[in-house]
Amino acid sequence: MGTGTIATEHMVAGIRAMGHSPLWVVSKDQGDALHFSNDMGIPQATTDLERVWSDPAVKFVYISASLKRRQHYVLAAADAGKHILCDGPLSEDSKTARLLVRHCSARGVVLAVNQPLRASALHQTIRRLALEGEIGSIQSISILRGGPFQPPPNRRGEMPHNGGNVYLDVCAEDIDLARFLTGAEPVEAIAFAKESNGSPNHLAYTIRMGDGSLLQAHESFGTADIESMVMAAGTDGVLIASGTLSPRGSGILVRRLAGRNELVPVRERDLHTATLEEFVGAARREASPLATGMDSVAALVATEAVASAVRTGRATAIR
Length: 319
Hints:
Layout (H helix, E strand, L loop, with lengths): L5 H12 L6 E3 L3 H11 L3 E3 L2 H5 L6 E4 L3 H13 L3 E5 L6 H13 L4 E4 L1 H4 L1 H11 L6 E9 L19 H17 L3 E11 L2 E11 L4 E7 L5 E9 L2 E6 L9 E6 L2 E4 L7 H13 L9 H20 L3 E2 L2
Helix pairs in contact: 4-5, 5-10, 7-8, 8-10
């Protein structure tokens, strides 16, 4: 559901790599649906969801629509009893996201969220090594990224974009990554931002996590391009992932112990296939999705606290 970005095409390839078949393309625009189905070799295209629900072969739904359309498709799929994988964040605000989670739960369907940073083999390695005590107790997670806003690569160049929302495009994703790496919940935020054309495009914030560690983030659409960095600093050592926040999800991982750096070999995995494998396993009650609807809710709640801290200039509790 949704035809806008190259990422959608990668997900179609991932579906096929798992031995499944994409059956329908759904869009609010019939022309877009037909173009995408023809390009990707998907047999059916429609704007009519009832045609999709009447097909007994349809078991799962992947939603890549715009933020404003995700709510419509999630509700419809849940009412039809279909398990859902939706691009993150679920919505533009935590209240709506929480309602979607409750709606899906009441109908007994899985609501998984596509959070590519969780699928990164390097980030999963950081999480595993941290849990195994390889760097001692985590004291802080530092995330650095910046550069001019890069909209998702559209298949149709004429599709408009609004220049990006640093909160929904970046902040929510990074907060979700910090929750994934630490297993802790955000507690309190303090933040500062610079504006461009009336909206924040350069953001720095610190979040106190429930385990006592700190998330420190620099996120910007107003700087020159910066090679991204994710650092987990512990009492005994440090893990540093460079270049993992790009759409490619590649990069390198270095472990620093006793003043020495060593490269950590990591076997790369396709982000989209990894996400799909966990989702399908969850739909079959064999596994848990990499990210759930409640994970998206938690990230949005913390993101809203960061935005509030920017507006008020005061530390903001996260509830």
